[in-house]
Write a structure and sequence with these properties.
The chain is an alpha+beta fold. The chain has four helices and four strands; from the N terminus they run αααββββα. A four-stranded antiparallel beta sheet has the order 1-2-3-4. A hairpin with a 3-residue loop joins β2 and β3.
Length: about 130
């Protein structure tokens, strides 16, 4: 989780390239494709960023929150975060798989693709 915390901190500071390179290039499950995967994810994020800012405002500096973990057995885990904006949040999900010895980043979901993960971590409380 430390790596995804660092990603969110770096991203919210406005250094998109460093955030994606730092996480994906060092932890991608297929090392030979890590640079290409980092670039692809960065482009996907950049393409939607203007639209996101028009809908929910600008990104808040240091504005992220870890919502929780979703697990499947002992070898698959997803860390779910939100990136805070002026008017709403933008969800992120990071899937890690543990094969023989180490955890590798197996997928990243963002925006609408991570919405279900965010909602599944909601806590229901009685009204006061």
């Amino acid at each position: 989780r430390a790596a995804t915390d660092e990603f969110m901190t770096t991203l919210c500071q406005g250094n998109t390239e460093k955030a994606f390179d730092g996480l994906v290039k060092s932890r991608w499950y297929m090392p030979a494709e890590a640079a290409e995967a980092a670039e692809s994810l960065r482009r996907q994020f950049a393409a939607g960023q203007k639209s996101v800012e028009l809908k929910i405002g600008r990104r808040l500096p240091a504005g992220w929150e870890f919502l929780g973990t979703r697990r499947l057995g002992k070898s698959l885990v997803k860390f779910v975060y939100v990136e805070k904006h002026e008017l709403a949040v933008f969800p992120w999900g990071f899937v890690f798989y543990r094969g023989d010895t180490e955890w590798k980043l197996n997928g990243v979901s963002l925006g609408d693709a991570a919405q279900d993960d965010m909602l599944h971590l909601a806590v229901t409380e009685p009204a006061d």
